[in-house]
Design a protein that fits this description.
By secondary structure, the chain is of the alpha/beta class. It is built from eleven helices and eight strands. Helix 6 links the parallel strand 4 and strand 5. The protein is globular. Keywords: Cytoplasm, Magnesium, Metal-binding, Pantothenate biosynthesis, Transferase.
């Protein structure tokens, strides 16, 4: 089912051709402004697309910001991409806050969104508001993302009323992997209506955007058509307003023996091989005494 509530997109349109604030613009033009939540809404209204990548540190935030990536997600995926866990469940607010601060301080233009980790919002709307306040006040984030469907509409409403912009996350929700029976596609067949209902309820509660993960493309298109707010996909087809990927997946840093990459990931680089070869060369130079050479010495 194709979206019916937004202008037709031009698939040939490149990010640099998008009107302000999207794209970096030619040299010598006015600086790009900070991307805000209403800019993402305008993208959907205009039939444009925007990009989101995860970021967890100063340098990736600076690079992706310079590249014109409109939104950066400091995800709970830091658990298994920074801290070495197998899933996103163990990461805590205290662990994520320094990462959020680093990204927010380093990105001059991108919208910075912080994930609410497992256990930091489920107890009550009051708990969610308290956690969201910390991410905006201490982490300097511009918005937060939280997983869950219509059940969490009161929680979203409470956060928005407290001044916390909320990005909703439906479909496959990694924090609920044990309830869902593992990493499984959501929204197939008759289950598509549940996701549509979830998205509508979360939009009505004030969510400025709905992210969908591991959802059939047809279902994601139906959800996008059912809401006026922008949608973001990760493994959800090409009908969403935006797309997001974990940067270590997209840039080929994550890998090695026994590591599987999800079907929806496109690798744009092979940084793992580049770093591996560079580290090997460095080690060899040190062991053979060729580094440091005279030009590296005082």
């Amino acid at each position: 089912m194709a979206p019916t509530n937004m202008p037709e997109r031009n698939p040939e349109q490149r990010p640099s051709e998008l009107p302000a604030p999207y794209g970096s613009g030619p040299a010598g033009t006015a600086p790009r402004p900070r991307i805000r939540v209403h800019h993402l809404a305008q993208a959907k209204e205009r039939g444009e697309r925007f990009a989101m990548l995860t970021a967890y540190d100063q340098y990736t935030a600076q690079i992706f910001d310079e590249a014109g990536i409109e939104a950066l997600l400091v995800g709970d995926s830091a658990a298994n991409n920074v801290f070495g866990h197998e899933t996103s469940l163990p990461v805590t607010v205290e662990e994520l806050l320094p990462l959020v601060r680093a990204v927010a301080r380093s990105a001059r233009h991108s919208l910075v969104v912080a994930d609410l980790p497992f256990g930091s919002y489920e107890v009550s709307p009051e708990q969610a508001v308290a956690t969201g306040v910390r991410f905006l006040k201490e982490g300097l984030a511009h918005a937060v993302k939280m997983e869950g469907g219509a059940h969490y509409a009161p929680t979203v409403r409470a956060m928005v009323e407290a001044g916390i912009p909320v990005m909703a996350h439906i479909g496959f929700t990694p924090q609920s992997e044990h309830v869902l029976g593992g990493y499984r596609v959501q929204g197939r067949g008759d289950d598509a209506q549940r996701l549509i209902d979830d998205a509508r309820a979360l939009e009505a509660a004030g969510a400025f955007c709905v992210l969908m993960e591991m959802v059939p493309a047809e279902t994601a298109a139906a959800v996008d058509a059912a809401v006026s707010v922008p949608t973001i996909g990760i493994g959800a087809g090409n009908a969403t307003t935006g797309q997001v990927l974990v940067w270590q997946d997209a840039m080929g840093l994550r890998g090695g023996e026994g590591v599987r990459v999800a079907k929806f990931v496109k690798r744009y680089a092979d940084l793992r091989s580049t770093l591996l070869e560079a580290a090997r060369q460095y080690g060899q130079d040190v062991r053979t005494g060729t580094f440091p050479a005279s030009e590296h010495s005082f």
